[in-house]
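[job 4471] stage=fold_predict status=RUNNING
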Amino acid sequence: MPVRRLGFGAMRITGEGVWGEPRDRDEALRVLRRAVELDVNLIDTADSYGPEVSENLIAEALHPYPDALVIATKGGLVRDGPGQWGRDGRPEHLREACEGSLRRLKLDRIPLYQLHAPDPSVPYAESVGAIAELQREGKIRHAGVSNVTVEQLATAREILHVVSVQNRYSVAGRESEDVLQECKAGGLGFLPWFPLGAGSLDAVREALEQIARAHGATVFQVAIAWLLAHSRAMVPIPGTSSVAHLEENVAAAELRLSDEELALLGH
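[job 4471] inference complete, writing structure tokens
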């Protein structure tokens, strides 16, 4: 399934703390529809966003889905309240989560299903094995993992044909560089979450501001452009609850940074 190199992360179309309904439901629906109008063809979500709210909004806004649209969702996190994230990697929970996502998204098969995070109380191979079983049953087409180390990725790839990894990564937070390089070497897509590093760009803010002024762009547009230039494996999925911000993010895909600008950011 070909995807364009800038996707949309649908976490922020929910309420504060990624909990409950969005403050402006109509705007959330407009954001989703506008993303597709702008030729974004990868929308990433999870059952835990809301919980369930993000998936329900995606189905309401976009179903029946365009043929080229790839819906990616995740299972393995559980919610007790705003800003609270627990982990449940038990095979029985992952099955329940996947089947719930199928219903909410109105899909017969999920194009990309991702194990949201390793659960320290469950052997990782067991959680990954549950995803493999769901794939054998035809409930998911492609499989990915998220929030993994190089070692966990290797474990997953022994059990499952992994096509993508979703880890936290940005120009100011490159702790997953080793995982990114594994993806590049293995032909996997790398979906950086929190790709704009909002609130944590201070280490490179001066360079970002200098480059942004030169291009008449924002620092966040430069941050997206850097990700796209940094690795061909990279598929950023910036999220927003605003149509104006969405359009700004998508426009960043057209921004080309010079070798000197990339060097200034530590390419």
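[job 4471] summary: Residues 8-200+232-254 form a domain with the TIM Barrel fold (CATH 3.20.20.100).
[job 4471] exit 0
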